[in-house]
Hints:
By secondary structure, the chain is mostly helical. 71% of the residues lie in helices and 0% in strands. The longest helix has 59 residues, at 9-67. The protein is rod-shaped. It starts with 8 loop residues before the first helix and ends in a 16-residue tail after the last helix. The relative contact order is 0.10. Residues 1-45, 64-85 are annotated as: Disordered.
Amino acid sequence: MAADPSASPERWTDTSRSLHRSSSSAAREAREQARQQAKQAQAMAAQQQQAQLAYQAQQTLQAHQARGPRLPTRAPRPARPNRHRNYDDENSWACGNWFEFLLVVALAIILLVGALVLVLFWVLYYRQGFAWTENPTLEFNLHPVLMIAGFITFSGFSMLLYRIGRCCRRIYVKLFHTIFHALAVPCVVVGFIAVLDSHNLANPPIRNFYSLHSWMGFVTMGLFALQFVVGFFSFLILLCCENATAGFRASLVPIHATFGILTFMLAVATCLTGLTEKAFLTPGFKYVEWPEEAFIINALAMVLVGLAILLVYAVRRETFRVRVASIVSQRL
Length: 332
């Protein structure tokens, strides 16, 4: 068969190009369709996986609710208390709190020293000073001075240390608390001996333990001795096994603090009855005529009353105390 002379080479080239374009378009469409199918398959797989995870979570929750709450197998270990607790950063005070604290402490210190100064001035200026058994009248002057020094000044400073020692370790506060109470012991003992000697060596002898002042003094000395023994035993004897006795000593704190305040208040009341007795029963002293000595006695009595108010306020004031979280470690 003869070839068509009208079919030129250029016509064959155009035909092959159009065939190539049509085959390339079909391939692109096939690839795009395959890509869309792959995306749909991935989306369906992701949905199935999420549904499976949600089903597993629901099954786990139902099983946990059926079993009930899981109890811990072992109790958590309690935090070990700090043996030497500091007051730093325990209380964040405003300026008003610090002003109140410093004012109360400063007034208490002034009155504690002022009571001792007043009784010394009274005895040395108006009662002719001191003596021992060779002069029973002057020996009696040791009694008011030493009793106020022991029961009021030293005991008051010992109580106040528990509020002003905020920057010291607790062990040092306890140590100074014990030292001041120990300084009060010889004062009370010598003052008691002085009043007994002055009564027994007087001419004629004076009866002992007949007045309200003497009875109150007995009760005060008994409470003071009990407080000192309990505090000494708790601080020095039980300190050697601190961890084993921590709970017992912590339980003694409110009892010791309460009886300490009661002892101090009773000591103030005993001093007031003693001053009144001395003012009314001293021969030749006309208290009702208001001499200078009577003014000193009344001023001393008012200082003692102010101390009773201030020290109880300082000890019992809630903002002056440490945080409740550390009250367990606040022991004797």
